[in-house]
Amino acid sequence: MISINTNTASTAAAYNLSNTNTNLQRSLSRLSSGSRIISSSDDAGGLAVSMKMGAAIRRTDATSSNVGNAISFLQTQDGVLKNMDKILNRLSELATLALDVTKTSDDTTLYDTEAQELVTALGDLEGETFNGIALLDGASLTVNTSENGAQSVAIDAADVSAISGITIELASGAAAAVTTITGAIEALATVRAANGSQQSRLSFAADMLAVNKQNLEAANSRIVDVDVASESSQLARFNILQQAGTAMLAQANQSTQSILRLLV
Question: What is the CATH T-level fold of the domain 44-224, as seen in this structure?
C-alpha cells in the first residue's frame, strides 16, 4: 500500500537513528570519563556494590593513617627509651667509678654531682608526650587494624615505674647504686623489647591494609572502569550506524516523493 499520511520506513529509520545516537553518546561519555557506569540505570547492582567498595577503600585509607600514627607513637617512645638507656648506662659507669678505692671523697662527690643531674634528666623524660598522649605512663591503647573495626592491636604507653623515681647516692653508697641502676637497665630492656614487638606487629598490620586496599581497588575497577579497547570498538560501530541511519532516514523521507508522480 502506498500512503501519504504514514511513512513507516521513515518512522523506523528515525527510531533506529535515535537509538544509535543514544548509544553513541553513552559510549562517548564512558570513554571521556573512564567510567563504565555513567548513571545508575547503566548497572544498578554494580553501582551499589561499587559504592560500598568505595567506602571500604576510604575507611582502609583512614585506618592505614591511624596505624601509621600508632607506629610513629611507638617510634617516638623508643627514642625516649633509648635516651633513658644512655643515661642509665652513664649512671652505671659513674657508680662503678665511684667504687675505685684510689678515689678520694672529693672525687666521689664530683661523680655524685653528675649523677644527680642525670637522675633529674631521667625524671624529665618520663613526662614526654606524643600529640598530648603520654608516652611513659603505662596506659594501654587500642589501635584498630581493619577498616570495619573487627581487628585491633593493643599498644602501651610504656610502664617505666621500675625506673622512675630512682635515687642514688654515689658519695655514700656507690655499691647500692650499682645494684639499683643494674635493675633499672634490666627493666628498661624489657620495656624496649615490648616496644619493638608492638612496632613489628603494627608494621604487619599496615602491610595487610595496603594489600586489602589494592584488592578492593582492583575489584572496584572491574565494576566501574570502562574497557577502553572494547568501548572504542563500540564507538566506531555506532559512528558507522549513525551515518548509515542518517542516510537511510533521508532516503525514506524522499521515497514519498514518488507519490507525486502518480498525482500528476
Answer: f41 fragment of flagellin, N-terminal domain (1.20.1330)
